[in-house]
Every structure is written in structure tokens, then in C-alpha cells.
Amino acid sequence: MNAFPIATAGRTAKRKSDRSRFRIARRKECSHHITAMKSQPVLRDATAADLPAINEIYNHYVLTSTCTYQITPETGAGREVWFGGRGPEHPVIVAEVDGAVAAWGSISAFHKREAFAGTVENSVYVSHRHQRMGLGRLIMEELMRRARTQKLRTVVAAISADQEGSIALHARLGFVETGRLLRMGQKFGKVLDVVYMQWMPETAP
Ligand SMILES: CC(C)(COP(=O)(O)OP(=O)(O)OC[C@H]1O[C@@H](n2cnc3c(N)ncnc32)[C@H](O)[C@@H]1OP(=O)(O)O)[C@@H](O)C(=O)NCCC(=O)NCCS
């Protein structure tokens, strides 16, 4: 269920709850640094034209957060390679707010060996200006819908153990912790553990 009313490209979703609308209004009143939404977000498949916006959202976290273990900003060329050659089982989607990309998500192969086919890893990144407005949930719910449609076996989220927001979002949507690897990364002088969370689509073979 989406956290708030959305318009998806090609179809319009219904208004879901008064509580959700309140949350958007609250953001408008209380925050000076978070961008307010003037219109409903629109979900759609990403195109090559979105890659600079996807990179801009991501590179903010490369430089400021342990949510990605990348330390050097992703280049345009690297992002093009990441985007290329994806089939319907490995989508990249974006949420547009007021005509600009404000969040994105992807489903990527977990491992290249053949027996891993059907096992995927998800990513979700919301612009730092649009956090806690329901966009992360919106992106995740669409990725989960795609995973069901594609009859994927399991979706894996590898999350730095210090990322409470991301762990809470995934748990809220039904992901469960299935593993924890210790001392896997080091960023900003901190040694970091990785939590693996998994969700099995109901349609999984
Ligand atoms: C983690 C992230 C995707 C969450 O997206 P968001 O749009 O800010 O979150 P939403 O508004 O959709 O929140 C949905 C639910 O997730 C949970 N949640 C999200 N952020 C949270 C936080 N900082 N602390 C605690 N719970 C949080 C809550 O349960 C929330 O529901 P609620 O607002 O009704 O309490 C976003 O903060 C982000 O992009 N972070 C940086 C990148 C990242 O960590 N990506 C994940 C890598 S796997």
C-alpha cells in the first residue's frame, strides 16, 4: 500500500489516507530545508536522460553517508554502464516531484552465476531534500510489485548496520534480517557491519 496519494505514469492512484496527507502538509509547515511537494509524485521507468539526476541524488550520499560504501563519486560513464543492458527483471524507476527526479530505485542481479538468477538486490535513494515524505516507501512498493510480476525468488537488501532509517523502511515493508556480516567496511573512520535483509515475493517459484 502506498503511503500517500500518487499519480503513476499512465494510471492514477487513489488517495489513500488522511494521515498521509497530513504528513505532507506537516513537512511544508515545519521544514525550511526540505522541499515541499506542490503536486503528487509520479512514478515511472527511468530513461538515460534521468542518469544525471540519479547520480546527483546518489553522490550526495557517497560524500556524506555510510548508506553506500562507495567513497569516490560515481561518474556519468559509470552510471551509464550500470544502466545499460537491463531487462524487465532488473528495472530502474524514478519518482518525479514537481517535474524533477526526487528519488530512484533499482533491482539488480545479486550475482552473475546462473543459479543466482531470480535473486536480486534492491537499491533505493531519496534526495536529501525529500526525506520522510513517503518517497522511499513509494519506490520500494513499486520495486516489490515488479518483483512479484517478474516472479523473482528473493530480494536482498544489503544495508550498513548503522542505517536505522533504511533498516526500518525495509522491515516495515516485510523484509526480515537473515544475516549480519561483521567489520565489512570502513568509512569516515568508522568500521561498519552489514545487515542482510530479505523479502520473498508471494509469487516466487
Ligand atoms: C532510507 C530512505 C530510502 C527512506 O526513504 P524516505 O522517503 O525518507 O522514507 P519514507 O518517508 O518513505 O518512510 C517510510 C517508513 O520508513 C521508516 N523510516 C524511514 N526513514 C526513517 C528514519 N530516518 N528513521 C526511522 N524510520 C524511518 C519509517 O517506518 C517510515 O514510516 P513513517 O514515516 O510512517 O514512520 C531515505 O532516507 C534515503 O534515501 N536514505 C539514504 C539512502 C539509503 O540509505 N538508501 C538505502 C540503501 S539500501
Account of the 3D structure:
Helices cover 29% and strands 30% of the residues. With 205 residues, it is α+β, with helices and mostly antiparallel strands. It has a single domain (7-199), classed as Gcn5-related N-acetyltransferase (GNAT) (Aminopeptidase, 3-Layer(aba) Sandwich), CATH 3.40.630. It has a nine-stranded mixed beta sheet, with helices on both faces. The model is unreliable at 1-33 (pLDDT under 50). Residues 3, 61, 67, 123-126, 131-137, 157, 159, 163-166, 168-169, 172 line the site of coenzyme A. Coenzyme A binds next to strand 6, helix 4, strand 7 and helix 5.
Topology (elements, then pairings):
Blueprint: E1 7-8, E2 11-12, H1 18-30, E3 42-45, H2 51-64, H3 76-83, E4 92-97, E5 100-109, E6 119-126, H4 135-149, E7 154-160, H5 164-172, E8 176-187, E9 190-199
Parallel strand pairs: 1-3, 6-7
Antiparallel strand pairs: 1-2, 3-4, 4-5, 5-6, 7-9, 8-9
The protein binds coenzyme A.
Coenzyme A (COA) binds at residues 3, 61, 67, 123-126, 131-137, 157, 159, 163-166, 168-169, 172.
Key features?
Aminopeptidase; disordered N terminus; binds coenzyme A; 205 residues; 30% strand; alpha+beta; 9-stranded mixed β-sheet; 9 strands
- Name the CATH architecture: 3-Layer(aba) Sandwich
Amount of helix: 25-40%
* CATH domain fold name: Aminopeptidase
Bound molecules: coenzyme A
- Radius of gyration, in Å, reads 17 Å
Q: What is the global morphology?
A: globular
How are the strands ordered across the major sheet? 2-1-3-4-5-6-7-9-8
- Count of strand segments: 9
- Could you tell me the mean pLDDT? 87
Cα(first) to Cα(last) distance is 23 Å
Number of contiguous helices: 5
CATH class division: Alpha Beta
- Can you say what the CATH homologous superfamily is? Gcn5-related N-acetyltransferase (GNAT)
Order of SSEs, N→C?
EEHEHHEEEHEHEE
Q: Name the beta content range.
A: 25-35%
Task: Domain count, please report it.
Answer: 1
Largest sheet: 9 strands, mixed
Computed structural class: alpha+beta
Query: Low-confidence parts, pLDDT < 50 over ≥5 residues?
Result: 1-33
